[in-house]
Amino acid sequence: MSENVTIDSLVAEILDAHRIALNKGANFGVTEGSSVVLYREVSVSDPETLEQLGVVKLVKLRLRVASVYEKMSVAVVSDRSEASVGATIGLSVTAESRTLVTIKDASEWGASKKPGVEVRVGEHAEIRLADPLV
C-alpha cells in the first residue's frame, strides 16, 4: 500500500460550467484521476471566554483531475460535500466572470437565498495524487 501524497495548489482559472484549472501539473507529479478537495474553514471560539479554539476544515467541493499539462491541470466537479444526496451539481459563473463561481444544487437554481458554494481564483485546493498501483 502506498503513502497518500497531497500537493497544495491554487485555483488558477474558472474554465466553464464544470471545470477549473489548477496551478500544478505534471511537473509536480499530478496525474489524471487525482482527486481535488476545496475546503471551507470555520473558526471556533469558546462562548464563555471568547478564546479562539481553532479552525475546522470542512470539505465544500470535490473534483477529479481530468487533464494534466506540464504546469497545470484541469479538474471536473465530482461532488459537492454540502449538497443533498443525489443533487445535480453545476457551476454558475457570476458577474465576476472567471474569478468566482457558485456551485448549486439543482433545487437552488431559482433560489437567491442560498448562494451555494463559492469558488474563487486564487483559492487553495488540495490535490490528492491517484495511487498508481490501483
* Share of β-strand residues: over 45%
SSE topology string: EEEEEEEEE
Which blocks of ≥5 consecutive residues have pLDDT under 50? 82-89, 92-97, 105-109
**Global shape:** elongated
Q: Within the largest sheet, what's the order of strands?
A: 1-2-5-4-3-9
Helix coverage percent of residues? Answer: under 10%
Distance between the termini: 10 Å
Question: Could you name the CATH topology of one domain?
Answer: Thrombin, subunit H
User: How much is the radius of gyration in Å?
Assistant: 16 Å
Determine the CATH superfamily of one domain.
Answer: FlgT, C-terminal domain
What is the makeup of the main sheet?
6 strands, antiparallel, barrel
Q: Please work out how many helical segments DSSP would assign.
A: 0
| Strand runs, count | 9
CATH class designation of one domain:
Mainly Beta
Your description of this structure?
With about 130 residues, the chain is mainly beta. It has a domain at about 5-45 and about 55-85 and about 120-130: Thrombin, subunit H (Beta Barrel). It is about 0% helix and about 50% strand. The chain has a 6-stranded antiparallel barrel with strand order 1-2-5-4-3-9. Strands 6-7-8 form a 3-stranded antiparallel sheet, with no helix packed on it. Strand 4 (about 50-70) and strand 5 form a beta hairpin. It is elongated and about 50 Å long. It starts with 5 loop residues before the first strand and ends in a 6-residue tail after the last strand. About 20% of the residues are buried. Mean pLDDT is about 80; it is low at about 80-90, about 90-95 and about 105-110.
